[in-house]
Amino acid sequence: MSDTVISHVTSEPRPVRAALIGFAVLAMALLVGAPLITVFAEALTDGLPVALESLSHPEAVDAIRLTLIVAAVSVPLNAIFGIAAAWTITKFQFKGKALLLTLIDIPFSVSPVVAGLCIVLTFGANSAFGGWLVANGFPVVFALPGIILASMFVTFPFVAREIIPVMIEQGRSEEEAALTLGASGWRVFFTVTLPNIRWALLYGVLLCNARAMGEFGAVAVVSGKIRGLTATMPISIEMLYNEYQSVAAFSMAAVLALLALVTLALKTLLEWRYASQLAANRRH
Amino acid sequence: MQIDIDEISKLFGATAALHPVSLALPSGALVALLGPSGSGKTTLLRILGGLEFPDTGRVLFDGQDATGLTVQERRAGFVFQSYALFRHMTVFENIAYGLRARGRQRPAEAEITRRVTRLLELIQLPDIGKRYPTQLSGGQRQRVALARALAIEPRMLLLDEPFGALDAKVRKELRQGLRDIHDTTGLTTVFVTHDQDEAMELADLVVVMSMGRIEQIGRPQDIRARPASDFVRSFISA
Ligand SMILES: Nc1ncnc2c1ncn2[C@@H]1O[C@H](COP(=O)(O)OP(=O)(O)OP(=O)(O)O)[C@@H](O)[C@H]1O
Ligand SMILES: [Mg+2]
C-alpha cells in the first residue's frame, strides 16, 4: 500500500528517480558493502586455517568470551530497565515525565567517550566512592563491572525507545480489563502487557545486543585495555591492528561483523514474518 | 446488590470531574447514566468499579463500605467503551481469563470449558470461540466483552457506552440483548450513554448528569413528564 502512496505523491521524472536510487545504492556500496567485504577479504588473506588459528589464541578467546559475557549481562538488564521505564512513562501520569523521556535519550546524544569518562570519575580509585569500592575488593573501573556499566549506558535507550510507542498506542484499557477480571498486577503484566509488546521488545533487544557487542568508545575508556582481562572484541581488534597483526585483527573483526549480520538477519526475518504487527506497532 | 454512592467527588488536577454526588441504586435495577460529553459519567462508573478512587465520599455495596476495596475485590463486571478485548487471545481465552485468574480457587479445565461454552450460548455466538478479536464484527466484540465480564460471576455489571461504536441497526438488537441478559442474571446493571433514546427505552432508572453534577434521578416516564431543570428539558428533547 505504501508503494502506491509514494508513486502518487512523488512527481519526479523517471531519470531523476533513477539517478537518486543509483546514488543511494552507490553510497551504500561504498560506505557499507566495500568495508564489509574488505574485512572478510583481509581476514582470509593467508587462508581460512590461519584466520581460525588467530581466533583460537587464548587472548582472542578471552576477548570473545568477555564480549559475550558483557552482552549476556547488559542486554537482559537493559530489557528490564527499558520495560520498567516504558511502563512508568506510559501507564502513569506524573510531573517530570518529559524530563524522564529526555533522560532516556541522553545516551544517544552524549559521546560514548564522555560517558566512559564519567564512569571513571565516579567509580575510579581517585574518587571517594571508587576508593572505597577498590578497598573492599570490588573494583569497577578497569574491571568487568565498569565495562558492563559503560555498555549498559550506551545501549540503554534501545529497548525503551522501541516499546514506548507501542505501549502508548495500546493504552491501558486491556490491563484495566484484566484487573477488573480479578487478575493481580503481576498476572496482568505477564498475560496482557508482555504479550502485547513482545515483537517490539524482541526488536529492541536485538538492536541493544548488536550495539552492546560492538561498543568501543565508552568501553575503551573504562576498561584500561588489559589484554586477556578487560579487552573486549572491539578493543582487541584495535590493539591487534595497531600492532600490525592484520590477519588476527581482521579475523576478529569478521567474527564481530558476522555476529552483527546474524542480528540483522534475525531482525529482517522478524520484520518479514510479522510485518503487519510491527507496522501497526511502530511509529518512528 | 444495592449500590449507594455517598457524597462522592473527584478532581483531575484543576477540573472537577465530579462535584459531591449522591445516588442510591436499588438491587437488580437497570440504570442509565445519561449526560453530554465530559459530564463525569465514565468517572462515576470507574469509581464504582474500583478503577478510580474518589477524593471524598463513600461507596456502599449492600450497606457495607466498599470505598477501600481494590478493583479485584469489587468483582464488578466491567465492559469498556472500546471493549478492550485481549487482542492476542482467542475469544475462548478472553472469556476464560477471569476464571483462570482465580489462583487457587481456579475451576478445573473441564469446568472452565463448560462455563465458557454456556456464556457463548448466552450471547448467541456459540461458534466463535476459536476466533481472535480482530476477526469479529463490532457487535460480536461487544457481546464477547459482555460474556467475559459475566464469566467472573460479578456482583454488578458496569458498561461504558456499550453501544457507542455500533451502527443504528445493531444498536437496537443489542439493546434488547442487554435487557435480556440483565433480566436473566438479575444483576444490578449501570450503563453509560449520551443517547437519551437509549436511556429512556432501556433503563428502569435514569440518572441525568451535567458538568459533574446529577441533574435528576427518576424513571424514564417521570423524567419525560417532569424534567427537574431547563438542562434536563433541553437535553431529553434534543
Ligand atoms: N484521567 C483524567 N485526567 C484528567 N482529566 C480527566 C481524566 N478523566 C476524566 N477527566 C476529566 O473529567 C471530566 C469528566 O470526564 P468523564 O470521562 O467522566 O466524562 P464522560 O461523561 O464520560 O464524557 P464522554 O461522554 O465524553 O465519555 C472531563 O472534563 C474530563 O476531561
Ligand atoms: Mg465517558
Automatic annotation (TrEMBL), chain A:
Coiled coil: none annotated. It is found in: Cell membrane. One of its GO terms (molecular function) is ABC-type sulfate transporter activity. InterPro entries: CysW_permease, MetI-like, MetI-like_sf, Sulph_transpt2. It comes from the Bacteria. Gene3D superfamilies: MetI-like (1.10.3720.10). Residues 64-271 form the ABC transmembrane type-1 domain. GO terms for cellular component: plasma membrane. It is a multi-pass membrane protein. It holds the Pfam family BPD_transp_1. The chain crosses the membrane at residues 20-44, 64-87, 99-125, 137-160, 200-224, 244-266. The keyword Transport applies. Keywords: Membrane, Sulfate transport, Transmembrane, Transmembrane helix, Transport. Its main location: membrane. Part of the ABC transporter complex CysAWTP (TC 3.A.1.6.1) involved in sulfate/thiosulfate import. Probably responsible for the translocation of the substrate across the membrane. The complex is composed of two ATP-binding proteins (CysA), two transmembrane proteins (CysT and CysW) and a solute-binding protein (CysP). This is Sulfate ABC transporter permease subunit CysW. It comes from Stagnihabitans tardus.
Automatic annotation (TrEMBL), chain B:
Keywords: ATP-binding, Nucleotide-binding, Sulfate transport, Translocase, Transport. InterPro entries: AAA+_ATPase, ABC_SmlMolc_Importer, ABC_transporter-like_ATP-bd, ABC_transporter-like_CS, P-loop_NTPase, Sulph_transpt1. Residues 3-236 form the ABC transporter domain. It comes from the Bacteria. GO terms for cellular component: ATP-binding cassette (ABC) transporter complex. GO terms for molecular function: ABC-type sulfate transporter activity; ATP binding; ATP hydrolysis activity. It comes from Stagnihabitans tardus. This is Sulfate ABC transporter ATP-binding protein. Transmembrane segments: none annotated. GO terms for biological process: quaternary ammonium group transport.
